[in-house]
User: Fold this.
Amino acid sequence: MNTDPSLNALRDEYREFCDLRGALSLLQWDEQTYMPPRGCDARARQIAALTSILHERLISPRYDELLEKAHARESELSDDERAFLRELEFDRDRERKLPAELVRELALEQSRAFASWQVAKRDRDFPKFAPHLTRLLELSRQKADCYGWEGTPWNALVPDFERGMTADRITRIFMPLREATVALLDQIRGAKPIDAGFLDQPWDVARQRELGLRIAADLGFDFESGRQDVSTHPFTSGIAHGDCRFTTRFAERGLMDALGSTTHETGHALYDQGCRVEDDGTPLAGAPSYGVHESQSRFWEVYVGKSRAFWAHYLPIARQSFPGQLSEIGVERLYRAINRVVPGLIRIEADEVTYNLHIIIRFEIELLLLEGKLPIADLPAEWNRRYREYLGVQVPNDGQGCLQDVHWSLASFSYFPSYTFGNMYAAMLVEKMEHDIPGLWEAVEGGEFSVPLGWLRTHIHRVGRRMLPLELIEHVCGIPVSADALIRHLNEKYGEIYLV
Ligand code: ZN
Assistant:
């Protein structure tokens, strides 16, 4: 990159920080995959200890010295070097505002809350989790105060996930999306329902896994630099360059759920595997935001994995694994069944149309919680009321209600909107990709997934954190970020499926 001694010293410092962070990621990955339940307390301490070390590292005076020297030569720096300094300073400045004791306390409480949430969700017992949620909200409000905020404490937390966004701006973006979704849902409710009964039958789990692994490899996942495991909540963990792990979940009656989580997590993993090698160990590696990361998973899960072109390619292959279940099923019937719209209780099982309503509910409730306007004891009732109002469904218990998601147990308040941003960015990127690659869907039908992947590598993966999230999407797509492309996509796709 350069021969400047202060920049080289910064790179060395930061490389060690990344190595420690990778060790932390591995502990967290293990916590969610293989750790025995009684390992929980020791793991909470290990994670808290390592988090404290990372905090100390990032705010160490050594960085100040080196950054000062590097800035003294600002005019001689390349664009990449300037981006390196900007991103390092962003991370460091946020970290520096937090007292070490708060960082440790939050890490400890997160591990405890995560363990308690697992039990509470299983037992459908919100009061069991409530004291942990109360404590995490207190600590998160303290964190917001340390950062400083305007309007709502939520605004202080959102830069961890989506830089450049505020609650007001998100509300303005979400409003037309909500209106368009409700209108489309009304039309779909009046249309002839789609029969997807054939999906609800036993599918051999070993064969599901085999098919999923094949698809992940076909899409471009490099198994020499990663692996797949099983967890209740599928996730991807980029532990280091050359070690990217994703998980899938399996159920006998859940072929499409397993394939959906596989293509989704493969999308995240392809992003991690697509970063430039030379960015490894620098603040430029990775995504500029969670929303941009999610745009990649949603691209592969929804735009590719639920397209006619994808199934024209994979149906003959899937029939070899499941001849009894699929020999009579054609592409059109499968396409309509996997894109069936049914308002439901569970976010991660939601179809494309209702998905964003699940997010909008969480976003609105999070604001109330952080602002102290919703007592914790009233959370389940408020959750259930909004599900009735927005989606027309009755929540039978808190396990399928406000306890369904892991995020709040990890104090990830303000994370949820990134999912809808992922959907919005993906819709914008697909419009641009279709414009740039006229034969895109023919390539997908031919199993040439390197065509869309190559485009994403160039325009998104290899850019890393050189650009801020909104800047990146606007630069690639040439239009301002909004929900317009997503609304167009939903109306066109589901208009054709349901209303023609
Ligand atoms: Zn995701």
Observations:
- Residues 5-33 form the longest helix (29 residues).
- The chain has a mean pLDDT of 95.
- The pocket of zinc ion is lined by residues 264, 268, 294, 297 (CB under 6 Å).
